Amino acid sequence: MRHNHRRLATVHGGRLFSILLFATKHRYHVPFQSPNFQLVNTRPFATKYSGRVVRETSDRRSVAVRVETANILPTDIRGYPLPRRDLICKVIKILQSSSDPFPDLSEYLQTLNVTITPAEASEILKCLNHPHLCLEFFRFCSSDIPNFHHNSYTYNRLLLILSKPSRLRDSERLDLILAILDDMERSGVRGSISTINILIAIFGGGADVERCFALVKKWDLQMNSYTYKCLLQAYLRSNNPNKAFEVYVELRRRGHKLDIFAYNMLLDALAKDNKVDQVYKVFEDMKRKYCEPDEYTYTIMIRMTGKIGKVDESLALFQEMTEKGCTPNLVAYNTMIQALAKSRMVDKTIFLFSKMVKNNCRPSEFTYSVILNVLVAEGQLGRLDEVVELSNKYMSKSIYAYLVRTLSKLGHASEAHRLFCNMWGFHDEGDRDAYKSMLGSLCDAGKTTEALDLLSKIHEKRISTDTVMYNTVLSALGKLKKISDLHDLYEKMKQDGPSPDIFSYNILISSFGRAGRVSEAVQIFEELENSNCKPDIISFNSLINCLGKNGDIDEAHMRFKEMREKGLSPDVVTYSTLIECFGKTDKIEMACRLLDEMLAEGCSPNIVTYNILLDCLERSGRTAEAVDLYAQLKQQGLTPDSFTYVVLERLQSGSHQKVRVRRKNPITGWVVSPLR
After folding, report:
1. Could you give the CA distance from residue 274 to residue 269 in angstroms, rounded to a whole number?
2. What gap in Å lies between CA 326 and CA 296, rounded to an integer?
3. Contact 628/596 with Cβ under 8 angstroms?
4. Is 219 a residue whose pLDDT tops 70?
5. What is the C-alpha separation between 579 and 571, in angstroms, rounded?
6. pLDDT-based confidence at residue 427 (cuts at 50, 70, 90)
7. Of 408, 429, 615, 626, which cross-links 437 as Cys (Cβ 3.0–4.6 Å)?
8. Number of H helices, E strands in the chain
9. How far apart are the first and last CA of the chain?
10. SS3 category, 55
11. Distance from CA of residue 622 to its chain's centroid?
12. Does residue 4 surpass a pLDDT of 80?
């Protein structure tokens, strides 16, 4: 049986077929006249289509047609094959389907007799974007796909993926990149300038960047503007503005240009490194012919000139920026205000601030802090009301709170309170931090009446009081010995809450003891023992100090023993307090015994402890023991202070002074030791 064969390309149902025609009828053959078909070149599908069509003509002749897909890859206008999107999607789906997808992928490609092109492999890598999986697929292509060879595009794609942050450690990532480069050179693949750009971004401005220059020479490439920009940014990220400036000079010599982003990066780095002359040179280059400065450029220049004290030049730059149509942003205004404030130009600072508000630029906390500092430095804090009035439309709760906190920290309680009163009527709901700062500022200034008033009204601003707030006021009342107010506030805590904590009880014990109210101090201590809180070292120290300084030394010693029985180890304050108490009552032997006990327990005396005992020994005329004690403190490696030398002078002169200068203990507030 003989056949006449003919292959044609036709469009049928939107698909491309090649047709094998043959005609038969019994024992002889008649050629089949095919209709006119349009020859086209459309994108094929990855799936292979085939079929057989049989028809019978009017004269009873049989015609059989076999339909197959054409093995033609579509190309772009340059002649490069276009990636087959359906194939790419199928491969990606297989790769993401399991932990070991490569056997399935190999079977799929062999079944369909399909070969992936490098362009398609690059697209698959791009979609995967997972370092380990990308690396395995990259190796699979070169080892398992027949006649597949990686080119610079696939290498670039893999390098770009590895350059991005991932779970890989930096050292592991760098080793992989270097291994890929070695493989690229072994395979004889010539990289492109894009390869160099990617490597520069990876290596940064370190020693490895020299390898990029070697590859440029080896591959006979020409560095373009983008390559120079990558190199410049790499040096800037490595904090090497000197090298970055050298790159800038070289790219200018070769006629390349930077964009505004790169110029601003270079200017900022040079300005921060105090390369003033180089900054001026780059800035003048920009304005002359290369790139028009924007508001960020001018902000960098204003910051630098303000830093070096050229505030007039800063003003000229700010004016130039506005004249060229650049709208100053918040950073630009803050930078200019900071330059004026540094030069103590209060009037110009406030004037620029008014322009800022007029141009609808909302001031930030930094803006107010700069103005506040210059007003304080120049003694013009009264003008803060003017600043607040100018920016009235932007005065929010957070800004008021910030100003109150800042003024409180700077010690300007009156100004903080005045501004706080403005804030009180301005907002229905208060700022908790601001109210706590104001409360602390009033207490530090001794304005306990105002502090108590604020504490009683704070709930009106939907702020719940806490123990810290009450403790702040309790401490201030105790220091001023306002026992009646102290007692009333404590009763209010017990009745309305919040419940006193260990700090509350310690403050109360110390405060009652400072005022000589021993019975109240003991009562508070007993209430502490019966509460959910338990006495700590500070509680016992405060009570021992209260008892001892008010003459009840035996009870103080009993509390000392009770403290140890309850498992609390006395500290240097405990021992120093008792040693002074025994010394005041001329029980020198007991004081010396406590020092020995202190050393035996492993509690190291400090210079205060030795000063107390030295003073006691000197006053009682026990000169030899005082000299021995001084030698002991020197052996302990302690440094004598001014009070130590006062006692030594008395020892040498033989005058036993009864009057001693002592300072308050920072914890209890009681005088427990002679301090300088």
Report:
1. 9
2. 10
3. no
4. yes
5. 12
6. low
7. 408
8. 33, 6
9. 125
10. strand
11. 62
12. no
Helices 572-584 and 588-600 sit at what angle, rounded to 10 degrees? 170
Nearest to 676 by CA among 659, 662, 665: 662
pTM for this prediction? 0.62
Write phi, then psi, for 55 (nearest 5 degrees).
-135, 160
Q: If you ran DSSP here, which 8-state letter would residue 657 be given?
A: -
Q: How far apart are CA 229 and CA 289, in angstroms?
A: 18
Q: Quick check: bond before 293 cis, omega within 30?
A: no
Confidence of residue 5 (pLDDT cuts 50, 70, 90): very low
For helices 607-619 and 572-584, angle between their N-to-C axes, nearest 10 degrees: 10
Q: What is the mean pLDDT of residues 78-87?
A: 73
Q: Is the CB of residue 16 less than 8 Å from the CB of residue 32?
A: no
pLDDT confidence tier of residue 670, bands split at 50, 70 and 90: very low
Query: Quick count: other Cβ atoms within 10 Å of Cβ 305?
Result: 23
Q: Which residues contact 3 (CB under 8 A, 6 or more apart)?
A: 22, 24, 29
Strand order in 50-56's β-sheet? 7-12, 15-24, 62-69, 50-56
CB 573 within 8 A of CB 667: yes
pLDDT in tens, 360-396: 999 999 999 999 999 999 999 989 989 999 998 888 8
Q: What average pLDDT score do residues 170-181 get?
A: 86
Assess contact for 32 and 23: CB atoms under 8 A. yes
Q: What are phi and psi of 433, to 5 degrees?
A: -60, -40
Amino acid at site 347: D
- DSSP labels, 441-488: HHHHTT-HHHHHHHHHHGGGGT----HHHHHHHHHHHHHTT-HHHHHH
Among the listed residues 65, 80, 52, 72, the one whose alpha carbon sits nearest the alpha carbon of residue 22: 65
CA distances from residue 115 to 118, 137, 141, 149, 342 in whole angstroms, order as listed: 10, 14, 10, 11, 70
Give the up-direction half-sphere exposure of residue 543: CA atoms within 13 A in the CB hemisphere: 28
* Nearest-angstrom CA–CA distance, 112 and 623: 108
By C-alpha distance, which of 552, 550, 551, 557 is closest to 574? 557
For 654, list phi and psi in degrees, rounded to 5.
Answer: 80, 5
| C-alpha 163, offset from chain centre | 23
Identify the band that residue 674 occupies on the pLDDT scale cut at 50, 70 and 90. Answer: very low
Helix or strand run (H / E) with residue 211: helix 209-218
Distance, CA of 74 to CA of 337 (rounded, Å): 63
Contact 301, 279 (CB under 8 A): yes
pLDDT digits (tens, 9 = 90+) for 222-269: 998 899 999 998 898 888 899 999 999 998 888 888 889 999 999 999
Largest CA distance in the chain: 150
